[in-house]
């Protein structure tokens, strides 16, 4: 297959070609060696079975292509003195990126015991996918990486996130065949409509088509070139095609393609930055077609391997037991002529290193892949500026997220020059009451603008696209390269990124154990438009289970908060925006909500995470309470306080304690979560043997799971969302799920010893109120006046 390109090759000299090929062959040798060898790294003696790893793990098929891209990126970075980062979408090609990091020296700088000689090469080989070693993917342990690629679909959105507000950075992004089939990747092609050629860097997508996934052909690789070209042009890119299986020809073609693409990028940026051109750029990209498992075994046991799906992982699988496979492996490794690539001590020869840039220009040494080295403290204003006045609890109402919007507006304004904070969400910034930020920054947009449009801004830092995957990918790339952000989303639909946040949490957990990885700003979610207020959306928009998913993950990296009013939301937001290396989830409503705590009270309460609201209860301190009413979430808090008020009125002799929980992990034992309470603390707050009626925002079994080891767990009764919902009134939602104030009073009567008989009439009145509610809303379409006009009178 001849090499092809849309542009004339730039013209490598024979010497440059030889040097590039030497580097590529060395990287291929090191990649294969990591998969197979645990001794004899330079083949100074014939291969024997004991030189081979007992378990052969890794992915060869993509590695030659990744090595080719890395080699040619080295060339252009060095020639043009570029500041560059690369996202390796086929992250399972870990051997390739590790090999290149070792060749350029960044691996030895990070891990001094993996020296750049035969001894270090042997350790590099043995540690790969080996107990006590390193993973097979481009993992956090890999210098220069911000993207593992274990789950496919996010490489391109990560690349664009890294490029945002990094005007001098080139982000190359290798997208593999399989990843190109995923939905998240398909949506992320549209990121080019949001990339500002003035204030942002450039992304160079490299679609690497080697034809196959694990066992099947890939869709994009089987498309005729003109059809694929039309698709990519339809996405707004300007593709440059390179294809071939002759190394010399492909080297020349890829060098020309990279020069062409980078010349176009430079021209587009110059036009926007120096000439005032505002047309949306058609950014270049490269389509690279090379054989899967290129330069590996052509056939194994009579079956074709190179250029087929059989080369995806380990082409020769029985090397220890099959002498024929062992001979074939040795022939394969010697085909790279390692004696030409490494000296007698195992160090790379000068020709191998000729294309490698120096210092921080090396892909494995760029500080942009270790964003904690670049992150700065956010200029957060004092919360008192935004605090709502609370002379007494429950006397006024505010929309908590609208109050937060004022704070975020000032954060956006304070970072206008340094450009290191972004607000992201899927078309919901205004819906979630955060539109105050538009006074400080509009919405990023490079496409056409019509007169009817509002707040669109070519240089904006509010990011909206109706793809939760893309929002998440942008934000992860932004954070991992040293910036700050907040992801605002409808509560029910944040589940779309369940597996993405899982990957990010795993990344954070791993980096905490790497001393050379500096802490990055936390990934912060604001979940609103929540389950209890979906008046016009209904059942499809009701799912509070994201917190259950997050709390299953590494306790050291996850935090979940339920601020019950505007001031507590401000306090929590201030905390999470200052934090490092966490995934923080804030669940807060956007509808009018009673103000319970002053700003100072809110700060203390949020720092405590859970506490007694003594003004809401009726215990006098002379004895233990008869019952504890606990709550987490804004609507549950209101219902608990309404229930406490009913109990004060109808059963004044009852000693009621009200406990509000902001930090839900406080319910866990200290041994299981850093924020967990000791048994002593928990028993003091909730008692050891008194009934606890807990009104919770989400699925009730989460509270049981968090508190199951507590002494008082048999006395814990939780009310929450039970997957019952529709388009109905706000109060009918809580009634339908048995979370309402009347049901909570009934629960108290049912569970406090002696009340079942003594308070039977009170219980009957509560049941009657629920029945009256049922009839009222079906006649009037709104909640009963005693509910809509309720206020705290304590």
UniProtKB/TrEMBL annotation:
Enzyme Commission code(s) on record: 4.1.2.-
SUPFAM superfamilies referenced in this protein's UniProt entry, alphabetically: Thiamin diphosphate-binding fold (THDP-binding)
Pfam family, one: XFP_C
PANTHER family in alphabetical order: PHOSPHOKETOLASE-RELATED (PTHR31273)
Enzyme class: lyase
Record domain Xylulose 5-phosphate/Fructose 6-phosphate phosphoketolase N-terminal: where: 12-373
Record key words, sorted: Lyase, Thiamine pyrophosphate
Entry cofactors: thiamine diphosphate
Protein name: Probable phosphoketolase
Record domain Xylulose 5-phosphate/Fructose 6-phosphate phosphoketolase C-terminal: where: 590-792
InterPro entries assigned to the protein according to its UniProt record, in alphabetical order: Phosphoketolase, THDP-binding, Transketo_C/PFOR_II, Xul5P/Fru6P_PKetolase, Xul5P/Fru6P_PKetolase_C, Xul5P/Fru6P_PKetolase_CS, Xul5P/Fru6P_PKetolase_N, Xul5P/Fru6P_PKetolase_ThDP_BS
Protein family according to the UniProt entry: Belongs to the XFP family.
PROSITE patterns: PHOSPHOKETOLASE_1, PHOSPHOKETOLASE_2
């Amino acid at each position: 297959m001849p090499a092809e390109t849309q542009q004339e090759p730039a013209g490598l000299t024979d010497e440059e070609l030889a040097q590039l090929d030497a580097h590529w062959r060395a990287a291929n040798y090191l990649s294969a060696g990591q998969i197979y060898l645990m001794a004899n790294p330079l083949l100074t003696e014939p291969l024997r079975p004991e030189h081979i790893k007992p378990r052969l793990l890794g992915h060869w098929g993509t590695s030659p292509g990744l090595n080719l891209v890395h080699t040619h990126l080295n060339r252009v970075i060095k020639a043009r003195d570029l500041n560059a980062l690369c996202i390796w979408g086929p992250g399972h090609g870990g051997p390739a990126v590790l090999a290149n990091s070792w060749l350029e020296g960044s691996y030895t700088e990070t891990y001094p015991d993996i020296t750049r000689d035969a001894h270090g090469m042997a350790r590099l080989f043995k540690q790969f996918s080996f107990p006590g070693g390193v993973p097979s993917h481009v993992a956090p342990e890999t210098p220069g990486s911000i993207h593992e690629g274990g789950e496919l679909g996010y490489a391109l959105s990560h690349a664009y996130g890294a490029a945002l507000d990094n005007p001098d950075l080139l982000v190359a992004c290798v997208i593999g065949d399989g990843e190109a089939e995923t939905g998240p990747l398909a949506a992320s092609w549209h990121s080019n409509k949001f990339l500002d050629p003035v204030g942002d860097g450039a992304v160079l997508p490299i679609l690497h088509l080697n034809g196959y996934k694990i066992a099947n052909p890939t869709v994009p690789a089987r498309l005729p070139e003109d059809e694929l070209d039309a698709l990519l042009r339809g996405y707004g890119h300007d593709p440059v095609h390179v294809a071939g299986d002759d190394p010399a020809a492909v080297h020349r073609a890829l060098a020309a393609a990279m020069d062409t693409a980078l010349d176009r990028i430079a021209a587009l940026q110059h036009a926007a930055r120096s000439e005032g051109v505002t047309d949306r750029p058609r950014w270049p990209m490269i389509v690279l077609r090379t054989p899967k498992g290129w330069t590996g075994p052509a056939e194994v046991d009579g079956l074709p391997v190179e250029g087929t799906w059989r080369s995806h992982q380990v082409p020769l699988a029985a090397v220890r037991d099959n002498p024929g496979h062992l001979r074939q492996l040795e022939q394969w490794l010697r085909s790279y002529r390692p004696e030409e690539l490494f000296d007698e001590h195992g160090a790379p020869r000068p020709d191998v290193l000729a294309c490698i840039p120096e210092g921080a220009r090396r892909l494995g040494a760029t500080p942009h892949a270790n964003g904690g080295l670049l992150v700065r403290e956010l200029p957060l204003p004092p919360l008192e500026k935004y605090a709502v006045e609370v002379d007494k609890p429950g006397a006024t109402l505010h929309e908590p997220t609208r109050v937060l919007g004022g704070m975020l507006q000032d954060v956006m304004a304070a970072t206008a020059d340094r450009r290191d904070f972004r607000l992201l969400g899927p078309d919901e910034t205004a819906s979630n009451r955060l539109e105050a930020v538009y006074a400080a920054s509009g919405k990023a947009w490079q496409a056409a603008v019509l007169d009817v449009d509002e707040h669109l801004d070519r240089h904006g830092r509010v990011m909206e696209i109706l793809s939760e995957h893309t929002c998440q990918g942008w934000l992860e790339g932004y954070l991992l390269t040293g910036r700050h952000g907040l992801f605002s989303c409808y509560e029910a639909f944040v589940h779309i990124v369940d597996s993405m946040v899982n990957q990010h949490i795993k990344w954070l957990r791993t980096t905490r154990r790497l001393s050379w990885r500096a802490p990055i700003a936390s990934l912060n979610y604001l979940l609103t438009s929540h389950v209890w207020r979906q008046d016009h959306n209904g059942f499809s928009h009701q799912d509070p289970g994201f917190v259950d998913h997050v709390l299953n993950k590494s306790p050291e990296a996850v935090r979940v908060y339920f601020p019950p009013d505007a001031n507590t939301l401000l306090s929590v937001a201030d905390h999470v925006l200052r934090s490092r290396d966490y995934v923080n989830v804030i669940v807060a409503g956007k509808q009018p909500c009673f103000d319970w705590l002053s700003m100072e009270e809110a700060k203390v309460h949020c720092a405590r995470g859970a506490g007694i609201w003594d003004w809401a209860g009726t215990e006098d301190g002379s004895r233990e309470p008869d019952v504890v009413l606990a709550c987490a979430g804004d609507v549950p808090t209101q219902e608990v306080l309404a229930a406490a008020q009913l109990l004060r009125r109808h059963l004044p002799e009852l000693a009621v304690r009200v406990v509000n929980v902001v930090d839900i992990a406080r319910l866990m034992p200290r041994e299981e979560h850093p924020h967990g309470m000791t048994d002593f603390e928990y028993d003091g707050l909730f008692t050891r043997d008194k009934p606890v009626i807990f009104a919770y925002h989400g699925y009730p079994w989460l509270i049981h799971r968090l508190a199951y080891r507590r002494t008082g767990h048999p006395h814990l009764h939780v009310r929450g969302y039970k997957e019952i919902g529709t388009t109905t009134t706000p109060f009918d939602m809580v009634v339908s799920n048995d979370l309402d104030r009347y049901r909570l009073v009934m629960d108290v009567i049912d569970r406090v010893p002696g009340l079942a008989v003594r308070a039977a009439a009170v219980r009957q009145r509560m049941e009657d109120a629920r029945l009256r509610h049922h009839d009222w809303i079906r006649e009037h379409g709104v909640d009963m006046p005693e509910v809509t006009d309720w206020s705290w009178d304590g």
